[in-house]
TrEMBL record:
Organism: Micromonospora coxensis
Region (Disordered): 398-419
Residue ranges crossing the lipid bilayer per the database entry: 12-35, 47-68, 89-110, 116-134, 146-167, 173-190, 210-230, 242-265, 277-304, 316-335, 347-364, 370-391
Gene Ontology CC entries for this record: plasma membrane
Lineage start: Bacteria, Bacillati, Actinomycetota, Actinomycetes, Micromonosporales
Protein name from the UniProt record: Membrane protein involved in the export of O-antigen and teichoic acid
Keywords: Cell membrane, Membrane, Transmembrane, Transmembrane helix
PANTHER family with a match to the protein in the record: O-ANTIGEN TRANSPORTER-RELATED (PTHR30250:SF11), PST FAMILY PREDICTED COLANIC ACID TRANSPORTER (PTHR30250)
Topology class, membrane: Multi-pass membrane protein
Polar residues bias (residue ranges): 398-412
Compartment(s) of residence: Cell membrane
Length: 419
């Protein structure tokens, strides 16, 4: 299959693309990191906890974007440039309907305002729609444009909120700005992807493939954010604010090595176990380095995440970093299972979520340390179980079938998550 693209040919082009995607990933994670950090400086503890909760809900709701992106990218890697309009519309409509049902309930359960959850819904739908165009760029191996698309989506998703907070707009003002910029950047992303033709002989992407990928990604986000949501529910405002700062470290450890998965997924989709082992090694090494850093300088880490008033809680930093590092490994494993067309790839994640919620509701002490330790244990067990299932799994025929004959308009590579 032809490996060229409009962004460069061969190893040199791939090297430049890898650097570009890495820089775009740094921008994505950097802007995502700045939002709660800036919120800690412009909002009171209760407002910061509400912001962190909204960000978690938005991340969970936005997993349909990642699922759509994964499905489109993997399908194009195997079958060429197939039509993706119908599964995109289905994904967006289903997401919007679910948000309309879930967000009002969340507003009551987590003590959030109506305008805040409404604006969050608008922002999330825009992010979900973006998954199609990011996936097409990935599957077509147009990595330089993918990097630009990642940057555009990050600016839309987080840049508006950063501006709203910096200008003193408060929680609602930040979400309003984020919703507006997300819609504007979506339009730019559509324009960026012009020129990607459709191969009429390519099989159409099945909606159930998107649902499988979205379900796995949803399970990944739910299990990794469950502790933050439960802290909001069971801890007093000051303690939940401390926990919200700690989860900044969790998210940093979880998403910092995502570029490894971005580069690895093309080979994972073809059942390359050596690539899986390499990806796990690199992600594990990055996680170990972050845990070591937070062990040595936990107060500094908490201070950078939430401000000087949070440095006294630095003793919790290694717990949060270790949890994120373990879930980063789970993220690689789950995407390997999705790429290999494994059945029910999200099953261990849902089981872990149910067990964790049940434990926190019944036996885990309702303190920062209590919930953080329970989250760490859950992450460790999830990584072990998912790893064992991944090692035992043999790629299905769909993942290892003979690829179509190379053509001048067909390329065969994909990546995982662009934003």
């Amino acid at each position: 299959m032809v490996t060229g693209s409009d962004d460069g040919q061969g190893r040199a082009g791939l090297g430049k693309a890898g650097v570009a995607v890495t820089l775009a990933g740094v921008l994505v994670n950097g802007l995502a990191y700045v939002v709660p950090v800036l919120g800690a400086r412009h909002l009171d503890p209760a407002g910061l906890s509400a912001l962190a909760t909204l960000l978690a809900l938005g991340a969970i709701g936005g997993v349909a974007s990642t699922g759509l992106q994964i499905a489109v990218a993997v399908h194009r890697a195997r079958h060429g440039r197939a039509a993706t309009t119908r599964p995109t519309l289905v994904t967006v409509v289903v997401t919007a309907a679910l948000l309309a049902l879930v967000l009002p309930v969340s507003a009551v359960v987590f003590r959030l305002t109506g305008p805040a959850v409404l604006l969050l819904g608008v922002l999330t739908v825009a992010v979900v729609a973006a998954g199609r165009w990011l996936g097409e760029l990935q599957g077509d191996q147009r990595f330089l444009r993918l990097a630009v698309g990642m940057a555009l989506l990050a600016v839309g998703r987080y840049g508006g909120m950063i501006a709203g907070l910096a200008l003193g707009g408060g929680l609602t003002g930040a979400l309003l700005a984020g919703a507006v910029t997300s819609v504007l950047m979506l339009a730019l992303l559509v324009r960026l992807n012009r020129g990607a033709g459709i191969d009429p002989v390519s099989p159409t992407l099945a909606t159930r493939t998107v649902l499988t990928a979205s379900g796995a990604t949803l399970a990944m986000l739910v299990v990794s954010y469950a502790d933050l949501l439960l802290a909001r529910r069971f801890l007093p405002p000051d303690a939940s604010g401390v926990y919200a700062v700690g989860t900044v470290l969790t998210k940093g450890a979880l998403w910092a090595p995502q570029v490894v998965t971005v580069i690895a997924l093309p080979r994972l989709a073809k059942g390359d176990r050596r690539t899986l082992l390499t990806a796990l090694t690199l992600v594990g090494a990055a996680g170990a380095a972050l845990v070591l850093a937070t062990t040595v300088a936990g107060g500094l880490a908490f201070g950078l995440a939430g401000g000087a008033e949070y440095t006294a809680h630095g003793r919790y930093a290694p717990l949060f970093a270790a949890t994120g590092a373990l879930y980063a490994l789970v993220f690689v494993l789950i995407n390997a299972r999705v790429a290999a067309s494994a059945r029910w790839p999200s099953a261990p994640l849902w089981a872990a979520t149910v067990a964790f919620v049940g434990a926190v509701a019944t036996v885990v002490p309702h303190s920062v340390a209590g919930i953080a330790v329970a989250a760490l244990v859950t992450a460790g067990l999830t990584a072990v179980i998912t790893g064992a299932m991944t090692i035992r799994h043999e790629p299905d025929s769909a993942a290892t079938s003979v690829l179509p004959t190379p053509t001048a308009t067909s390329v065969g590579h994909d990546t995982l998550r662009g934003g």
